[in-house]
Amino acid sequence: MGTKIAFKWSKKITSSQVVHLIKAERNVDKALAIFDLATAEYANGFRHDHSTFGVIINRLVSANKFGPAEDLLDRMKEEKCDVREDIFLSICRGYGRVHRPLDAMRVFGKMKDFQCEPSKRSYITMFDILVDENQLKLAFRFYRHMREVGVQTSVVTLNILIKALCKNSGTLDSAIHIFREMPNRGCPPDSYTYGTLINGLCKFGKLTDAKVFFEEMKMRDCSPSVITYSSLIHGLCQSNNINEALDLLEEMKNNGMEPNVFTYSSLMDGLCKDSRSSKAMELLETMVSKRCKPNMITYSSLIHGLCKEGRLHQAVEILDRMKLQGLQPDAGLYGKIISGFCDVNKFEEAARFLDEMVLNRILPNRLTWSLHVRIHNMVVQGLCTKSDSSRAFKLYLSMRTRAISVEIATFEILMKSFVKDGDLHKAARIVDEMLIDGCTPKEGEWSMLLGAFWNQTMVQEAVELFQAEVMSELAEADITIQDEAF
């Protein structure tokens, strides 16, 4: 069934009216229905033009409905409607946004089929998409093609080229070379050029060079952006120059710039790695007071730092705060908190967080498998050392249900706990499942289990012998009484 639209068209439908209705409709399927109804209402009275086609194609691209968008592009050609480059660029950018650069390239290649000659803007847009999506070989080929077809070098094209060269440590020198050549080509570097180069140098640990370019940038009246400051702060934190990074934060604020979530998160990560989680917590409060919303990286850094310093209750508070914000902790965060509680022998609390992971459906996958195995076995073993074999057994059963590997040390400590508790039925079950998993108990464990069974058998036999003797004595006493009665 099609989407129903309930409104009355005017007697003369205009392009501006259709554009307004499509923009006003929040539901993209209904917007498409409006587009179709405009021509269906008066069969010969209205024809779509560049503006109406453009607005609906933009809506479809925004909703990642690329198939219908390209169908409309073909329909424009069939209806001999003027197809301008902004429609093609809208689709290309959409494909770039969802990391489909080859589809963007394919659509770019269709432009000439529509008698639409790509302008310098189209070439630059496509070049930027290829670089952003790490299609570097294709990007460099495309750049050479741009030069061949006469697209003139500009600050914008050189900035994108430098960005491409900053993606790999091996091409950083080439990026610096082009940067130094820019004034000779009549393209003096701008703030974006400096920022791109500084970001690339910081990314590969070349802090000394990055700082030189940062100072040069300020001398040439190229104001560093928030992104440039943040890149340098992140680089300084990664190389453990925390105090220098904090000084840079103050300089940034004094220049009237508000740090963003990346700036704060980088600093908090650096502080936590330097065992200064109290200062990181202060930054969190500053960040929130400035209406800058923490993200997963912010919370992860804090939780890791607090756990490392043994401040587990504060780590749990941050975890709760994170959940209240609507962010779902991952296996790594739970693992850090569980390991922290295990380190201070609080295995019951650790087990509670394992239960919470199950309730939140945080299941093992290829990347987190070894983490799940490690923390589950750690908690089961810890519970056994705390003589909580009942809780340990429940967790063990949960592990087997979810096919989480049980380590041989876990099998052994469970068996010993049950032998110690006198629960030989569970001890025998553990050994049985241990053998099924291909683990062979050591000689000492066999001896312990067999000894327990032997002792239980001897006790049973002694009880039975005692009962027999008592019954025999009672029977003899009964016969004596009967004899005396006669």
From TrEMBL:
PPR repeats lie at residues 49-83, 154-189, 190-224, 225-259, 260-294, 295-329, 330-364, 407-441. Signal peptide: none annotated. Transmembrane segments: none annotated. The keyword Iron does not apply. Keywords: Repeat. InterPro entries: Mito_RNA-Proc/Resp, PPR_rpt, TPR-like_helical_dom_sf. SUPFAM superfamilies: HCP-like. One of its GO terms (molecular function) is mRNA binding. NCBIfam families: PPR. Belongs to the PPR family. P subfamily. This is Pentacotripeptide-repeat region of PRORP domain-containing protein. It comes from Gossypium mustelinum (Cotton). The lineage of its organism: Eukaryota, Viridiplantae, Streptophyta, Embryophyta, Tracheophyta.
